[in-house]
């Protein structure tokens, strides 16, 4: 999976937020302010791969530089990002639409923290590499991934929502084991309009994938369960480095729809892997940082291996009040 090197991150509004936050950080009260406003710039790369007959088809949208924000109040958080600048050549990758939405809230559970969240990722107009170089743009082809997730922190003294989601001040380093589970559905193919007579496998690759050449839509209804570890290292009082990693298993119900109206599918299992690394400066009111996250979900659908990979980076600065 190739990540473009030219990001061109805007910095004017972040610099203004940094200057304002530096003045505010001098105020010190014990209670953390309840409101959170965090504007951010983000880049998100998504790839859906279909492997069959020794051939791997890698579908991806044109990644975009996204602008958005996270808003929070006493643990409840809402984040919304929309792409504003495409990072790859539009002649090859097209003018893809990318939207990411998230909603989260932490619950207490027998003295431990359970962070529940809902997610929605949508990409439209995907392209795929073809033999001889270049890419084939499949207009109208989309990818949608939506669902809910729960992360249970096993250490009673650790709060994922306070340290990672709200970026509150740290009193020292800490770590915890965790359990993670998600229930969701992913679609790949023609999501809107009639699919009859429309296949998303390019003619150049049809012979290599055999019966899958007429695929028009793949639906993956999945449940993943994983275990992992998170550590928050307080380098100096306002500056911390955070790492989270988890591995587990995904059970999926794969449904395949073809251009001629026929269908197939079945139940399957596959690996699930996710990581997060972040560097955060956290004062009482002001916080800023950068983070990178990745996830992989895969499943075997008959003779085909279907996998979804996502890599996200973010530069943020926010205030609590």
Structure description:
It is a single chain. Strands 1, 2, 3, 4, 5, 6, 7, 8, 9, 10, 11, 12 and 13 form a 13-stranded antiparallel sheet that branches. β9 and β10 form a beta hairpin. This protein has one domain: Beta Barrel (Lipocalin). It is built from 4 helices and 13 strands. The protein is globular and about 65 Å long. The chain starts with 11 loop residues before the first helix and ends with a strand. With 321 residues, the protein is mostly beta strands.
Key traits:
mainly beta, Lipocalin, 13-stranded antiparallel sheet, disordered N terminus
Strand and helix map with partners:
Layout: H1 12-24, E1 35-52, E2 55-61, E3 64-73, E4 76-86, H2 90-93, E5 97-109, E6 112-129, E7 135-153, H3 160-165, E8 174-190, H4 203-209, E9 215-236, E10 239-258, E11 263-282, E12 286-301, E13 304-320
Antiparallel strand pairs: 1-2, 1-3, 1-13, 2-6, 3-4, 4-5, 5-6, 6-7, 7-8, 8-9, 9-10, 10-11, 11-12, 12-13
